[in-house]
Amino acid sequence: MSDSKRMSNAPVYYVLAQIKFTPVKAMKKYVDDIQDALRLQGYPLFESRDSTQIKFEFNAPGEPAQPAFETVQQWYLSDLNRTSGFVLGNDFITFHTTDYETHQPFIKELMKGMTVVMAYPKPALITRLGLRYLDAVLPDNGETIEQYLCDGLHGVDLDLKPIQSVNEMVFQTSVGPIISKGFIINRLHKIHGQLGFPPDMVPSGVDMLERFRTENVLWHGIIDTDHYVEGNVTPDIDVVEKQFTSLHSVVKGTFNKMISQYAIDKWS
């Protein structure tokens, strides 16, 4: 994830950036305008899906919260190759891709979506900005995952057959220009199986690139980096773009510290 150029064998296989804003309960009536604007900017494929979410409601003072189910609608706008697209909800817009190049064009595409949302439903405030990267560590025959990782991520050898492990670290970060305090979650998944996605993430609207599709099960790793800030921000395109650039800079720095020189040489 170089600032200037992409590694020739870059391990990144999925990236998303999300802008959350104050809820627009009437989002559905703006969807046609948003879809038409983004269709003309290269995202003609469109579908909507309903999902059921559980929430807890307090019906009376002193009584425990009761579970309730809520139907939530989301809209998916993708390019013809189904490698990049937007996901729109009542309180967010996400841009995601499986064909990531560098952060500058990626953030520029996200800003296209934000510009359209600000032109139609016009949410009052932005409340959260987040970036998430998934990088695949797929050892060749004769290699190990550990060869690709810094010494601190090699784990403990219990002399048993490994099936799965997750190493999670959470840090506070310094970013800008508007929100100065961020949080980054670095996870290392080690899995025996085919390359897929972490359990909390099931992307829709985009397909994994062919070179990352594993036909056979193998012991592999996923470097999962989630960096975000929260706070009430005026919807200013230039400021939001700079905030995402700052978020990316920290993501790049932590990624480089998690991998070995062997990985850099292999992926460059």
Automatic annotation (TrEMBL):
The protein's name in its UniProt record? TIGR04255 family protein
